[in-house]
Specification:
This is CAAX prenyl protease 2/Lysostaphin resistance protein A-like domain-containing protein. This protein has 323 residues and is mostly helical. Helix content is 66%, strand content 2%.
Length: 323
């Protein structure tokens, strides 16, 4: 079982996941120093006051440069996670990602492609339905730079979040609760609430947290049912990458030189509830049919029996999906 792989390290314990999470946060924070240094250099050379709030910091540098520095912190966090899993938990890093012998990249690309197509089609349809809400924002040079940064670093950002929430923390909470529903609910709740500082929440209200928590729940269900995070990795990468390239607005967390700029006034209503209660269930249905998921109740809410040393090999074999 994917979620039970945290039990494989005999000296593993839940307190290690608390310490590990703190160390990941420290690594991510260290990754923000290049951004602060760049802002400081501009402030000194142009004799301007150093930005005092996050909104000013987000617009102080060129948007491509700001995006680059924002995403660099996730490189630090991913490196920190790798070292923590390998040396602190004494686990193989792949065990945080999948129960298979190696990553199944066909799953990643199927999920990525499916959500990329859906996102692109919906964006085009929305543009033609209400062209007055959009401005053509395309600048070839700036967009090319954006594409290079986004393609190189956004998958690292989304992968870090998936490895941490759907892998590392899911297995940590499983070690504590010895069941599957508690890790699923806790990681979804934490994932959603960590977005509470996003400018979208300030603009649209706390109702948008339904979307963030619902997205975490969707990705957690996918990871548990599929015995790995490959599908979650693909969805999350497509969601952030395609979104960053296609549309930006003044009230989103990513300010980019995208193709379109949305000037409409955001409202938290049908557009927030539709993905969680309609689109995500449809995606679960598609994934379940393609990968022949079954035994939903056991995989999402079942009890985890801590393995004995003799049963480690058996658990590893049971966790592998037939290809």
């Amino acid at each position: 079982m994917f979620i039970a792989q945290g039990f494989k390290s005999k000296d593993n314990a839940f307190w290690k996941y608390i310490v590990g999470s703190i160390l990941i946060i420290i690594a991510s924070t260290a990754g923000q120093f290049p951004w602060i240094i760049a802002i400081g250099i501009k402030s000194l050379t142009e004799k301007e006051e150093f930005p005092q709030d996050q909104n000013t910091m987000m617009t102080y540098l060129n948007s491509n440069l700001t995006l680059f520095f924002m995403l660099i912190s996730f490189v630090f966090a991913m490196l920190g996670l790798y070292l923590i899993v390998k040396y602190f938990h004494k686990q193989k890093f792949i065990e945080v990602a999948t129960s298979r012998k190696k990553m199944d990249w066909s799953r990643f690309f199927f999920s990525f492609g499916l959500w990329a197509v859906i996102t692109t089609v919906v964006t085009i349809a929305t543009y033609y339905a209400s062209p007055e809400n959009y401005e053509i924002n395309f600048q070839p040079v700036q967009f090319a730079v954006l594409a290079i940064i986004a393609i190189a670093l956004i998958p690292i950002q989304t992968s870090t979040e998936e490895y941490v929430f759907r892998g590392y923390l899911m297995q940590g909470f499983a070690l504590l609760a010895k069941n599957k529903w508690f890790p699923l609910m806790m990681t979804s709740l934490i994932f959603g609430l960590l977005h509470i500082m996003n400018p979208e929440v300030e603009k649209m209200g706390y109702i948008i947290l339904v979307y963030y928590i619902g997205t975490g729940l969707f990705l957690g269900i996918v990871a548990l049912m599929d015995e790995g995070i490959e599908l979650s990795l693909g969805f999350h990468a497509a969601n952030n990458l395609i979104g960053a390239l296609l549309v930006t607005s003044d009230w989103t967390v990513f300010q980019t030189h995208s193709i379109l700029k949305d000037h409409s006034e955001p409202t938290a209503g049908f557009d927030v509830l539709l993905p969680v209660f309609v689109i995500f269930p449809i995606l679960l249905f598609i994934f379940s049919k393609k990968y022949k998921w079954n035994n939903w109740k056991e995989k999402l809410t079942g009890v985890i029996v801590p393995p004995t040393e003799d049963s480690f090999h058996e658990i590893n074999e049971l966790g592998k999906n037939d290809e």
